[in-house]
Amino acid sequence: MSILIDEQTRVIVQGITGRDGSFHTEAMLKYGTKVIGGVTPGKGGRTVCNLPVFDTVKEAVERTGAQCSAIFVPAAFAPDAIREAADAGISLIVCITDGIPVLDMVDLYHELKRKHVRMIGPNCPGIISPGKCKVGIMPDFIHMQGDIGVISRSGTLTYEVVYDLSEKNLGQSTCIGIGGDPIIGTGFVDLLEMFENDDNTDAIILIGEIGGEDEEKAASFIRTSVSKKVISFISGRTAPPEKRMGHAGAIISGGKGGVEAKVKALQEAGVVVVDRPDQICDLL
Amino acid sequence: MLQQYGITVPQGQLADTPEQAAAAAAVWGDKAMIKGQVLTGGRGKAGAIRAVSSEVEAESTANKILAMSVNGYPVKQLLVTECLNIRAEYYVAITVDRTNKSVVLIVSTAGGMDVEDIAAQQPEKIRRFTLVGADEQVSTESLIQWLSESFPDTSLLDRATKITQNMYRLLRDKDCLLVEINPLAVTADGRLVAADAKIVFDDNGLAKHADIACLLNPEEYTADELEAKDAGLTFVSLSGEIGCIVNGAGLAMAMMDGIKLAGGNPANFLDVGGSSSPQKVLAAMRILLRNTRLKAILINIFGGITRCDDIAQGVLLAREELDINVPIIIRLRGTNEEEGRSLLSNAGMIVAHRTKDAIRDAVNCAYKETQQ
After folding, report:
1. According to the model, what pLDDT value does residue B71 have?
2. Nearest Cα to B108, choosing from B124, B94, B90?
3. Residue A2 lies in a domain
């Protein structure tokens, strides 16, 4: 098994006629993902990679029964694309687009919650359940089917860890890049819960970084609700402090968000936190 | 900008020299304020905001402030304003709370300097109100109700409500991450004046707001940072000796951490981004080599969309076009790794397979002289 996506997941691509959209549609199809169509307003009736293109997500859902949408549209149109997908009955949105303003994400976060629609991203590499399905832009050849779950805020750092895992024959159940933006659709906690409940996931790797409190929240969730082994790496020890947000930033964060606080919280929850990403494999 | 949104600010004039400052101060008679203009907080604490009571004092104070740096930003301009007769100081800010995924209004009756210390020591003095969150939009009535606790005087309450609403309008209109007025001063003559303010705009919103994007002050960035911006690179200068070129922010941060762990110090953060052309690598190398502290260059690439052979070609191009006098340590993995590797080894360069090994080699090369 795996979480979020598998060989049954029916996927459409919003922005399928764009450069990135069409390139990655082909890559996803090649990997075996059931991509069954795409959406670009005004370009309905065309085909891309032999798949039908629709004008609206609603039409695409009605005609193909899609459940999942991968969003590749430019940032300026992404918030509307996300809303359109949610209103059309898509249950899982994977938003690859980067550069969406933070205030738009504040609004969207709560709208999606009210509509019970899950979103991964934005500004993320997407999701892959190795050997079954990939919805995203990650290099698939580095992955291998197995029983380790990976959740990460970073793209290339995740690839690095996954490459190490596969090289040592440690396959993955599902790998999720949750995105590096300040406000994202799904954080660590929801995914930890899914991995905990997934019979085919034996251990979980959590890759975090400085900023926000998602790692701290993950730590308190792990303490109470995760029985599986969790290994973590947090990057950003040497990152310079953020100067711009001044008073309000300090009031809001209350001194949290640094690497030390995150490492301490995770360790207290029984998570093994490594100093270097290459040490993760040695612990599995 | 606050004025455009109907918020009262002190009358004032910009000055570039002590002489101009003295002339501007003269307008206000025997009392004026001189404020160093820098794009960071903590100015009051650093002594970059001072009251003066004569033209002569204005000139000498201006001279002192113009020689200062606040948080590493040199003061290059001054704002000379009327000296408000302040009866009370509020802190009022609207900002994004990333943990709660909300937009919050923060109000404190203890405005002025060190408000974050008050937040830590006397949290009851800092009040928060969620403007956008899990619940539907808040009503004006509930906002007034909430504000009335901080502004019991009804005439102040009315104006504070308008100021708050206008701050929120500004935040939404221009995609701000922060609109902060500190202090919001109650003057002796009963006015409510934004004595000082700070606005942080969302970089992701700049595409929508040409009027804000053009405010970008090139002086806020170093020449290196501007060149990096133009080349599509994300670059931050740091104080160490090992120059870093990496694809992806997470991998870049992890590698910088790794350098530190191995006993070295990174000279910079540099993310070449997703689709890296040889030209981008050349630009990155050019920027790094300008750093006189540089002792080694460490290139770490995990090819997903990025192709390792593109990176290798960029390195070879840089060797031809630039005068490179420090060792280059390269680690390539991922898409077209073999092609990239053979390009470089044919040119006599060694390519590492593991980040750990590359970091060790770079630290050894960079600090060899000092160890001997």
Report:
1. 78
2. B90
3. no
Q: Could you tell me which residues are beta bridge partners of residue B128?
A: B106
Phi and psi, residue A49, nearest 5°:
55, 40
Q: Report H helices in chain B.
A: 18-26, 43-46, 55-66, 115-121, 140-147, 154-173, 210-213, 223-231, 249-261, 278-289, 308-321, 337-346, 355-371
In whole angstroms, what is the distance from residue B287 CA to residue B181 CA? 38
Q: CB-based contact (8 Å) between B134 and chain A?
A: yes
Alpha-carbon distance B232 to B227, whole Å?
A: 9
**A3 inside domain:** no
pTM of the model: 0.89
What's the whole-number mean pLDDT along residues B216-243? 84
In a shared domain, residues B273 and B355: yes
Cβ contact B182–A247 (<8 Å): yes
H/E segment holding residue B271: strand B268-271
Active site members of B: 91, 180
ipTM: 0.89
CATH number for the domain harbouring residue A209: 3.40.50.261
Longest dimension (CA), chain A: 56
What's A231's DSSP letter? E
CA separation for the pair A161, A280 (Å, rounded): 8
Residue B17 above 90 pLDDT? yes
Checking if the pLDDT of A243 tops 60, the result is no
B102 and A159 within 8 Å at the Cβ level: the answer is no
- Say which of B120, B204, B253 has its CB closest to residue A209: B253
Mean pLDDT for chain B? Answer: 90
Q: What is the pLDDT of residue A52?
A: 97
Task: Provide the shortest C-alpha distance from residue B277 to chain A (in Å).
Answer: 16
Indicate the number of domains in chain A. 2
A67 backbone dihedrals φ, ψ, rounded to 5°:
-115, -25
pLDDT of residue A207: 96
State which residues form the domain around A234.
126-283
